Amino acid sequence: MMRIASVGLVTCLFAGTAYAQDLVARGRQDFVDSKCTVCHFVGGEGNKKGPVLDGIGAKLTSDEIRK
Question: Is the pTM of this model over 0.85?
């Protein structure tokens, strides 16, 4: 029974990590597709004259970012 619980826990941990990576990849692709780098700078890419967006996800909610 303990083995089953351990396998379940490990599976959930990996699934959560994969989900987070998918969100990051999707966000990066949305950023590129929307041509945000024309005005913004993030992760060493984009317009250095515009606002730097590194760490913006820790400061704003997803709804605020969409606006």
Answer: no
